[in-house]
Amino acid sequence: MSDAPITSASRSSGSATSGAGVGGPNGITEDTITSTKASEVEQPPKSDGPAGGSPKTVTRPGDRIFSSLASGSAIFITVVIAAIGAFLIWRAVPALSRNQANFLTSREWVTQDINAMAFGVLDLFQVTVLVSLFALVLAMPIALGIAIFLTSYSPKWLTRPLSYTIDLLAAVPSIVYGLWGLLVFAPAITPVAVWLNDTLGWFPLFADGSGSITGGGTIFTAGIVLAVMILPVITAVTREVFIQTPRSQIEAALALGATRWEVVRTTVIPFGKSGYISGSMLGLGRALGETMALYLILRTTSQAFGWSLFDGGSTIASKIALGYAEFNNDIQAGAYIAAGLVLFVLTFVVNAAARAVIAGKKD
């Protein structure tokens, strides 16, 4: 009789122990745990939009206004450029229809009689390209050297005034450069030009040309003056890019024992190469469109252009300035506008090539 209560108590104790082992002292079962975990599963957030759609995005009025202004600015400049191109084509077509020579391959320029017009841009194009490339070749290494000096070698007390001086060159009017080149620089550079012609006359670039070497009205003189004019443009862009070189890269190179020149060669120049090319192309664009300085320096000639630095002639821009007296007649003015159209396209091609080169460097 006494054994029965003990057995019953043991069973009750076993049941409680079993419950405590599974779910704790309160006797929580496995089913309770499973249902609790299922209820704790994170539910997806409710959508604010339509059923099954993405949530609504809130656009503030300021964002819409700024986006509209930015898009409008891009559209505006595109429309302006397209309008300029359309105007040049519209005004050039009547003159081109009366032209009795091949506009792209002819060297002559006869526009006085609108019934017997014969004009071409071959010589103008060649002079423009040669004087601009000569100026660019002279200006690029000097601009690179100045930018490296200002960013890596110059003491602080000299950097700011020297930078201001170089930037000031860009503010000088082109007619002042032209007068300086004609009256001051040309006589001073004549001995150098004569020596180059006597010593290296066998090379086509320094051979006798259609211009007067002693007179100074040659591509040689004009190119050097033009190089001085585009120098601040290239220097300013290159300097600003070199300044952006990460300081951590420079310090890492110095920590590895690199000299100052090795830091410039392996860190600064590779980082700023695309900016240097971009600045050079900006300078080339300035050189291609320069008018007044070359109008004053270059001496016109009736001889064919021979790709000598001692040739005379006219660039496209200076030729347009020379022919201002004919602008009263729409047909005669159209001949010069056609030449301006060639310069317009040439500038576009140069800028497109520069962007392609820069994009390739970045890749």
Walk me through the structure.
With 363 residues, this protein is mainly α. The protein folds into two domains: 3-31; 71-362, MetI-like fold, CATH 1.10.3720. It is built from twelve helices and two strands; from the N terminus they run αααββααααααααα. It has helices at 3-23, 30-40, 61-98, 122-153, 156-169, 174-199, 219-243, 247-255, 260-289, 292-297, 316-322, 330-362; strands at 109-110, 118-119. A two-stranded antiparallel ribbon has the order 1-2. A hairpin with a 7-residue loop joins β1 (109-110) and β2. α4 (122-153) packs antiparallel against α9. The chain is flat, with a radius of gyration of 38 Å.
What features would you highlight for this structure?
363 residues; mainly alpha; MetI-like fold; 2 domains; two-stranded antiparallel ribbon; 12 helices; 1% strand; disordered N terminus
Number of domains: 2
Summed over residues and divided by their number, the pLDDT gives a mean of 84
Largest sheet: 2 strands, antiparallel
Characterize the overall form. Answer: flat
Low-pLDDT segments: 1-28
CATH-defined fold name of the largest domain? MetI-like fold
Instruction: State the name of the first-level CATH class of the largest domain.
Output: Mainly Alpha
Please name the fourth-level CATH homologous superfamily of the largest domain.
Answer: MetI-like
Strand order of the largest sheet: 1-2
Structural class: mainly alpha
Distance between the termini: 97 Å
Strand content: under 5%
Count of helix runs = 12
Number of DSSP-assigned strands: 2
Encode the helix/strand succession as letters.
HHHEEHHHHHHHHH
Portion of residues within helices: 55-70%
What does the radius of gyration come to? 38 Å
